[in-house]
Amino acid sequence: MKTVVVGVGSSVLTDDAVGLFVARSLAERFASRDDVEVLENEEAGFTLLEDAVGYDRMVVIDSIMTGAEPGTLFRFALEDLEETIHAGAPHGLNLATVIEFGRRQGLAVPREIVIYAVEAEDTLTLGEELTPRVASRVEPIAEEIAAEMF
């Protein structure tokens, strides 16, 4: 099974980058595997479709803000995002929308898509480092994802 792992976020918005940090950790763990590719995506929208095409499984890691403890890991299936499908603004398309678009176009999008979301503490402050509480969770989260997915 060919898997693509995509860390999503902005590298200059503090905890918004947590998906990128977790992806970097996973890239080191899977460097010798031919069946896993790890990518970083700072643009989202249609670029996520480009990342997805040609793989059997897609694992997306992004930040989220729900009010939970910073560093809390959430797991979603693509179906959990179906209510968010929209096409009102092409620059703001989310993962569920672009994957559905890909399916309707007959593209080889993954059959299995898992979304991990890490609770962020600060996604508004300019900075290339994570807040301490979120940073302390990067390696445990990478370990948890690796154990669950591979």
Structural overview:
The protein contains five helices and five strands; from the N terminus they run βαβαββαβαα. With 150 residues, the chain is α/β, with parallel strands linked by helices. The chain has a five-stranded mixed beta sheet with strand order 2-1-3-5-4, sandwiched between helices. Strand 1 (3-8), helix 1 (18-29) and strand 2 form a beta-alpha-beta unit. The longest helix is centred in the N-terminal third of the chain and has 12 residues, at 18-29. It is globular and about 45 Å long.
Low-pLDDT regions: none
Largest sheet: 5 strands, mixed
For the biggest β-sheet, the strand order reads 2-1-3-5-4
The helix-and-strand class reads alpha/beta
% residues in beta strands:
15-25%
Shape: globular
Cα gyration radius (Å):
15 Å
Q: What is the number of helical segments per DSSP (H or I, 4+ residues)? A: 5
- The ordered string of helix (H) and strand (E) elements is EHEHEEHEHH
Mean pLDDT: 92
Number of strands: 5
Give a quick summary of the entry.
The chain is 30% helix and 22% strand. It is α/β, with parallel strands linked by helices.
Please outline the helices and strands.
Elements: E1 3-8, H1 18-29, E2 36-41, H2 46-52, E3 57-64, E4 73-77, H3 95-104, E5 112-119, H4 132-135, H5 138-149
Features:
30% helix; 150 residues; globular; alpha/beta
